[in-house]
Amino acid sequence: MILENYIRDIQDFPKKGITFKDITPLLGNPVAVKECLSMLVKGLEGRPVDKVVGIESRGFFFATLLARELNAGFVPVRKPGKLPFATLSSAYELEYGTDTLEIHTDAIRAGEKVLIHDDVLATGGTASAVCSLVEKLGGEIVECSFIMELSFDTIPKSV
To answer: Where is the Phosphoribosyltransferase domain (predicted)?
Structure first.
């Protein structure tokens, strides 16, 4: 199964000049979801994971499935003002601006093994910000996983 066939390009979204990678066709196909999840879990065999951190918002889809598959807890990382408890925040650069993410201060305990998941790796700014949050809480990052990685050599601006 070629998962790329289930990811469509949306031109000029969310801004003119940006090509958005839409994973909703993948999410709508249970066979593709199962294959994608299998591929994400494969590299984690034999490595304990206590928490799976999902990055708002498209990272939540597979992060919750990964948490269930790995018998781990799920931790959402969200944009400011979306989490109801005390938070820790980290600002980061996007390929088309800046943003901030937050995590609950009690979401990860020192020494917990953490898998960080998002749908796409573009510039690495988002993943780096989340790694910083997890490490500030004392978590040990096992791996960062992504459904796709964008190459700016061939795709000038993508999300």
So the answer is: 47-147
Annotated catalytic residue 35:
no
| Regions in the chain scoring below 70 on pLDDT | 95-96, 152-159
Domain coverage including residue 140: 44-149
- Inside any domain, residue 113: yes
CATH of residue 48: 3.40.50.2020
- The answer as to whether 52 is a domain residue is yes
Mean pLDDT of the chain: 92
Structural domain count of the chain:
1
Active-site entry in 56, 69, 93, 95: 95
**Model-level pTM?**
0.91
Known catalytic residue at 135: no
80 phi, psi to nearest 5 deg: -55, 140
- 67-97 per-residue burial string, b: 16 or more CB within 10 A, e: under 16: bebbebebbbbbeeeebeeebbebebeeeee
